[in-house]
Each structure stands twice: as C-alpha cells, then as structure tokens.
C-alpha cells in the first residue's frame, strides 16, 4: 500500500519488495542521463531514495555514492572505447578530488550541509546560465579555445590552468562527498572553462574521475554504516549498463548540443539544491 505523508511519497513494507525490483531500471535511466550530460546520477538517486524509499538523507547519500562507482566504471569503459578519456589528466585531478570527497563525507557529520548547498546551488546556476548563453556562440566561444587541446599532453603545458583546475577539483570532491552528487556537475565546467578540453572528452574524463571520488567518499560512509548494499547493487547494475549506453548515444549528438544538455542538467541540479537547502 502507498501512502502520502507531508507531500512525500514512500513505499510501505507491504509492497516494498515489488518497488525494489524497479531499482535497476531507475539505475539504467539515470546512467544514460549521467553519461550523456556528465552530471552524476546522484541528483536522481538521492531524491528517489529519500522520497520514495524513506531513506535517511545520510544513508541515501552514502548509497548514492557507491552506485556512482558502478556508473563511473561503465561510463569510463564506454568513453575509453571512443578514446575520449584523458586518464593522466584525470588521475592528476583525482589526487585532489579523492581526499576532497573523503573530507566532504566527514563534514556531513560536523557541518550543516544547508550553507554549502545554497552557496554551491547559486554557483552552479551561474555556471549553467553562462554555458547556456555561450551555446548561441558555441563555435566562437568554446570551439576556438578547445581546438588548442588536440591531445592530452597539451593539458599539461599551461601550468597555471592546471594548478587552478587542481585546486578547484579538491573543492569539487568536498561537495561530491558532502551532498552525494556526482563530481561531474563541478568537474565538467572546470575541464571546459579552465583547461579548455573538448566537451565530449570533458564528460568522459569526468565520469572516470567520478568513479574514483565516489569510491573514496563511500568508504567514509561505509565506516559509519550509512550504505545499503542491497539497494546499491540493484541501482548499480542498471547504472553500469546505462552509462555505457549513454556513452554510445553521446556519439550521435553534436558537441554544442551536449554542452547545452549539460548546462540544462546543471541548472536543474542547482535548482534542486536550492529548493532542498533554502
């Protein structure tokens, strides 16, 4: 039986098992969305687990992070087949993001997420609006910059950009670990606007990093017992397949359209964060 309480839909124990087997489909759809846009499935997993399956927020975040490990692996496989993952650059940024994710997971026990959620919700909204506006002049604003990056080695030539990207990646890891959302919401703009990486490669590299940072963050949640492994596996199976499908479908979409999709998805994430934390 399904009840409505305080405008929140949740599943009772009577039919909970039935709804649990919908989780792989949810993971599949979220994985496709994540791999195409670069925004981690946490923006869907956390609300579903809290609103539909009555998870505590901390447990929903921990479970979501573990699911995104599956998603990161699937997307990395898909994008690596297309040679759209900069592994060396990603590994370097992971050195900043992984400790950031662990720090963020720890901060969930110490610092109220509300302040951070509002600040970064506004920050993401500003980035999303800027990217949406830039798509009207995509070839002039983005393509001219990204054409300088024709191979991964060129990412390391501008030390100032790389250092800035490294520092920003640490804070992206903190947000990912603290709020349970994929690091792609922060990393893709960093790669696009700071390192000037082409959008498809930015998304592929972001998904590779998402798996690493999500694993680092989920370990902290596992330490305090805030992961439901049964739900994580069911969602993860779908996400593992869905992200590979999404990576394949991304080859059918022009780069400027992918950027526009990402910007719209980013705007949705920012609005969700603001509605949740204001």
Label this structure with key terms.
two-stranded antiparallel ribbon, 278 residues, 2 strands, globular, single chain, mainly alpha
Give an overview in words:
The chain is mostly helical. It has one domain. It is 75% helix and 3% strand. Strand 1 and strand 2 (8-11) form a beta hairpin. Helix 4 (57-81) runs parallel beside helix 11. The radius of gyration is 18 Å and the shape is globular. It starts with a strand and ends with a helix. Mean pLDDT is 78; it is low at 1-9.
The biggest sheet amounts to: 2 strands, antiparallel
Integer average pLDDT: 78
Distance between the termini: 32 Å
Radius of gyration: 18 Å
Shape: globular
**How many helices?**
12
Widest beta sheet: strand line-up: 1-2
Number of strands: 2
Q: Show unreliable segments.
A: 1-9
* SS class: mainly alpha
Strand content: under 5%
Order of helices and strands: EEHHHHHHHHHHHH
Helix content: over 70%
Integer tally of domains: 1
Structure at a glance:
The chain has 278 residues and is mostly helical. It has 12 helices and 2 strands.
């Amino acid at each position: 039986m399904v009840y409505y309480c305080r405008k929140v839909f949740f599943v009772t124990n009577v039919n909970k098992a039935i709804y649990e087997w919908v989780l792989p489909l949810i993971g599949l759809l979220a994985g496709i969305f994540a791999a195409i846009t670069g925004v981690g499935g946490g923006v869907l997993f956390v609300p579903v687990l809290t609103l539909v399956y009555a998870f505590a927020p901390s447990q929903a975040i921990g479970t979501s992070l573990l699911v995104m490990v599956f998603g990161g692996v699937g997307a990395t496989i898909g994008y690596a087949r297309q040679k759209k993952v900069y592994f060396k650059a990603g590994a370097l940024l992971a050195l900043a993001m992984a400790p950031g994710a662990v720090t963020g997971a720890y901060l969930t026990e110490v610092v109220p997420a509300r302040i951070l959620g509002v600040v970064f919700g506004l920050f993401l909204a500003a980035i999303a609006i800027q990217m949406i506006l830039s798509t009207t002049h995509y070839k002039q604003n983005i393509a001219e910059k990204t054409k300088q990056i024709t191979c991964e080695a060129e990412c390391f030539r501008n030390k100032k950009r790389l250092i800035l990207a490294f520092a920003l990646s640490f804070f992206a890891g903190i947000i990912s670990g603290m709020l349970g959302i994929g690091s792609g919401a922060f990393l893709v703009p960093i790669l696009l606007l700071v390192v000037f990486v082409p959008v498809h490669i930015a998304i592929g590299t972001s998904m590779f990093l998402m798996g690493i940072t999500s694993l680092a963050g989920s370990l902290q949640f596992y330490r305090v017992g805030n992961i439901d492994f049964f739900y994580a596996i069911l969602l993860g199976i779908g996400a593992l397949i869905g992200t590979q499908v999404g990576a394949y479908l991304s080859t059918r979409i022009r780069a400027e359209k992918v950027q526009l999709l990402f910007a719209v998805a980013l705007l949705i994430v920012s609005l969700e964060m603001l509605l949740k934390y204001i």
